[in-house]
């Protein structure tokens, strides 16, 4: 529990630094109710991981974020991702053809779909492939293409060509950031191009993103999605941000995260 608490605190520090720009050790110590030395250890770890850049007396979020690997992202906001994945899995109906993007939250959705029957799943992500490879009741198609090691997803002309030959009842996309005006953010132009094609080939488009990704702009490459797409996030999302998304025609689903059991 203590380790999970430390990880959650570090995730919140990154979110605060990203939105506020600068937070001192003393401010963070007061806010989280821990000692200054604990905060300094948190900052040292986050700096070593490349998630923050240090300044004298404090910490500043990176303006040009190094892309985190899928393994690094898997433990971030774990409970929120699981709750979002369960909500998304409940939308999938028997007999549908579903498209799964790469990413840790979509990978959690693939795990939830292991009990499905008469389902066709196409995916660009290795995590989804690994989750569903041994499930006989789910027919799996791999888009193929060029593998990006950091995201563990396929991109490029071959993946795009495969999409041109398929249509989908539902597409579930991951993202590194969500903007009210720009759409969804990724590190690589090939990723955003593929996401736009995925959305264009699908009847219903869902973006799965925990609240910490809302309003984030870690990279400069964006995917514009068709009107009426659905953001699935957790109930910790900023009400103002949710309101602005809805004003822009985005459907927003807020998923409650079950409280952790007491010791």
TrEMBL record:
Assigned keywords, A-Z: Transcription, Transcription regulation
Protein name (record): DeoR/GlpR transcriptional regulator
Signal peptide: none
Keyword Transcription regulation (UniProt): yes
Matches recorded under SMART domains: DeoRC (SM01134), HTH_DEOR (SM00420)
Domain HTH deoR-type, residue spans: 6-61
Any matching Pfam family: DeoRC
Organism expressing this protein natively: Streptomyces zingiberis
Keyword Cell wall biogenesis/degradation in annotation: no
């Amino acid at each position: 529990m203590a380790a999970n608490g430390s990880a959650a605190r570090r995730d919140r520090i990154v979110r605060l630094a990203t939105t506020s720009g600068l937070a001192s050790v003393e401010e963070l110590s007061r806010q989280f109710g821990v000692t200054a030395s604990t905060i300094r250890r948190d900052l040292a770890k986050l700096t070593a991981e490349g998630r923050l850049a240090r300044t004298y007396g404090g910490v500043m979020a990176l303006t040009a974020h190094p892309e985190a690997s899928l393994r690094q992202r898997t433990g971030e906001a774990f409970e929120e991702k699981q709750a979002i994945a369960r909500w998304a899995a409940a939308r999938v109906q028997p007999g549908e053809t579903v498209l799964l993007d790469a990413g840790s939250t979509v990978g959690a959705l693939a795990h939830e779909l292991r009990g499905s029957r008469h389902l066709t799943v196409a995916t660009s992500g290795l995590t989804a492939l690994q989750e569903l490879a041994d499930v006989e009741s789910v027919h799996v198609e791999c888009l193929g293409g060029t593998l990006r090691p950091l995201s563990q997803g396929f991109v490029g002309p071959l993946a795009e060509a495969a999409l041109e030959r398929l249509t989908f009842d539902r597409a579930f996309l991951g993202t590194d950031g969500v903007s009210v005006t720009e759409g969804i953010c990724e590190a690589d132009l090939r990723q955003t191009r593929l996401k736009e094609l995925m959305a264009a080939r699908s009847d219903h488009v869902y973006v799965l993103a925990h609240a910490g990704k809302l309003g984030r702009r870690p990279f400069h490459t964006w995917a514009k999605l068709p009107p009426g797409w659905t953001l699935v996030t957790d109930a910790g999302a900023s009400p103002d941000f949710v309101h602005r998304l809805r004003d822009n025609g985005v459907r927003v689903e807020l998923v409650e995260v079950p409280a952790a059991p007491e010791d």
